[in-house]
């Protein structure tokens, strides 16, 4: 096995805790889509985990700019009563902080997602694994 292959293998075994974004931005299900979309645009992010409330960070979904764009074609999002819970994806791919990066990569590739929420044993949001963060870490790792 070449040195580069060994380096890549070692990279894949990094713990999620070493690569995740800690305490990521999140949204609650009763927020307006307009507010959510504005937050994503201002912060230049493609999606937000959805938690039950600001007091209870139990992960219940994810909302992405893509979800909002697709819904815009299917219905009128100009209605002021369109909420995050109306468009969020409830079927989630999650990962734990002690899992390995290779596990996150497999989930991301298999399910064509760019972000995976990191949860604790109580299913509470504690982090987020982002495709962009992985690439930045990989570049630093290889140089």
Can you offer a commentary on this structure?
This protein is an alpha+beta fold and 143 residues long. The chain has a single domain, classed as CBS-domain (Roll), CATH 3.10.580.10. It has 6 helices and 6 strands, in the order H-E-H-E-E-H-H-E-H-E-E-H. It has helices at residues 3-12, 33-43, 65-74, 84-87, 101-111, 131-142, and strands spanning 21-22, 47-51, 59-64, 95-96, 115-119, 125-130. The strands form 2 sheets. It has a 4-stranded mixed β-sheet with strand order 1-6-5-4. A two-stranded antiparallel ribbon has the order 2-3. Strand 5 and strand 6 form a beta hairpin. The protein is elongated and about 60 Å long.
Total domain units: 1
Structural class by SSE content: alpha+beta
CATH fold-level label: CBS-domain
Name of the CATH superfamily:
CBS-domain
Q: In DSSP terms, counting alpha (H) and pi (I) runs of 4 or more, how many helices?
A: 6
Please summarize the sheet with the most strands. 4 strands, mixed
Helix content: 40-55%
Estimate what percentage of residues fall within beta strands: 15-25%
What is the radius of gyration computed over CA atoms, rounded to a whole number of angstroms? 17 Å
Contiguous runs where pLDDT drops below 50 for at least 5 residues: none
Give the N-to-C terminal Cα separation: 19 Å
Would you list the SSEs in sequence order as H and E?
HEHEEHHEHEEH
| CATH architectural grouping | Roll
- The geometry reads as elongated
Placed side by side, the strands forming the largest sheet appear as: 1-6-5-4
